[in-house]
Amino acid sequence: MAQPIVFYDIPIKDRTNPTPWSPNAWKVRYTLNLKGLKYKTEWLEYPDIEPTAKGLGGAPTDKKPDGSDFYTLPMIYDPNTKAVITNSAAIAKYLDNAYPDTPRVFPAGTDAFQAAFLETAWANVGIHVFMLVILDTANHMFPRSHAYFRATREAKFGNKLENLATEDEWAAVEAGLARWKGYLEANGEGGDLLFMGAQGTVTYSDLQIAALFVWAKTVWGENSERWKRLTALQGGKWAKFYAQFAKFEQAAQ
Fold first, then answer.
1. Phi, psi angles (nearest 5°) of residue 133
2. Mean pLDDT over residues 147-152, rounded?
3. Which residues pair with 147 in a beta bridge?
């Protein structure tokens, strides 16, 4: 019998019942849930990510400004293969290959398309959603993670977190979502709620977008005016899009 995959994620809100929020981690959590794979969540605070990753032999995902290695979550350890994988897309591709009898989020021949989509999705919408939710995200973190997150993000953007959520960012999100709506509707009626179209295939690209929405809902609250404003854009198109992923939102197994 296969052993549960260990999934490393960053908690917020409640120490006795931690809540997942990170959009990068949600892309993997969605993938695990969509595939029906058994896993368990190990929660790490920000200062603990690097030593844990190094201890497991996980690969760095970027470089720091000083040129040293930078480690981020998500990360998985698969006891069935002894593999340690970092980076959301790399993890999703690993799961496709290691568990071929489950639904693929990178269908054959789509890697180039999905890599390009990731880059444009972040530039067009992701970074602007980030600016809108970053303060609320930090305020839900436990003290050690809050201090690390605030210090590193304020250094990166050269501004206080309190100054980042502007109406210009809302306008950019609306414009970006309008562009995505056009992409979806190019599939024609019946195929306009998933990027691969009418066949109903959920891909990593869909999960990238859903992850932004679950992030905003988590830190703002489902009854908040900001969440209602976001999901009302383009006549409620994105509320319909996001609703498809509720069945893949189990927080842990």
1. -105, -5
2. 94
3. none
How many C-beta neighbours within 10 Å does residue 161 have? Answer: 18
Assess contact for 104 and 53: CB atoms under 8 A.
no
Q: Own/partner pairs for 193-199, CB < 8 Å, 24+ apart? A: 193/240, 193/241, 193/244, 194/244, 195/117, 196/107, 196/110
pLDDT tens per residue across span 194-208: 988 766 689 999 999
Q: Over 90: is that where the pLDDT of 190 sits?
A: no
Contact predicate 250/33, CB 8 Å: yes
pLDDT at 253 > cutoff 60: no
CB-based contact 79:6 (threshold 8 Å): yes
- The side-by-side arrangement of strands in the sheet containing 5-9 is 39-43, 5-9, 75-78, 83-86
